[in-house]
Amino acid sequence: MLAAVVDNTSPDIEYSGQWSFNDTAPQTDYNQTTAYSTGPDSSFRFKFNGTWVQVRGSLIPHIISSAAYTLDGGRPTFFTSANSSTYFSQRVFYTSDIVPYGEHTLVVTPASSISYCFDNIIYTPGPYDVAPTAVMTTLPVYSYSYSNSRGRPDLRVLLPAVILPCIAVLAALLAAVFFMRYRRRSRFIELEDVPYTPTTPYSPTRLSSLAKVELPEKALSADGYHVVPTQAHFDSDAPPTYSAL
Predict the structure, then answer these.
(1) Which residues cross the membrane (predicted)?
(2) Could you give the strand order of the β-sheet that contains 43-50, starting from the edge strand earlier in sequence?
């Protein structure tokens, strides 16, 4: 079963309202092009001959896409995407039921004040009675973390992934430094809190109160000097003096 892919730039798609076209979309977008609704009352219309149709778009980080899909003037089908932190390409926004073969008209009306990123339409151009499941493998859903086709990284994704771990490591280092300083200061405080106990002052004892010892009249010192100690040496608090003979 064959399926036709219609890019958002095709003249077969009739736009109304305010739209912006991006021709430098990521490589995962079909033909690297997308169309954005930029104002209220925006919509587009697509007429085809077939039995089945599907609308695909891209999810912009932190922007929710919402739109109403009306086939042949019937009851609209509403779809609102989930909030994502990553850019997704080839996201399925709408898939119709199998309808009788013939001419059909699909009208897509994005919700007001919400940016809707439209990529392409897939439909079956022949009288098939089943949906082309092979299309799902032909145009898979991609997640894309780059800002454009030149491969420049998306700073909204890259910066938090690099800066936040660096901030966490820096905070851990600062916490360790402050903790070590706190421990050291606590030890100083503990030492300062120890009460001071003064020692008992030394009370000199007069040598005169000790028993007097009879010394020889002369004694020879180790350096060869002859010294003559007198009784005054024992009666005075001052250091003894010697006189060389």
Answers:
(1) 157-179
(2) 13-16, 43-50, 102-110, 66-71, 77-80
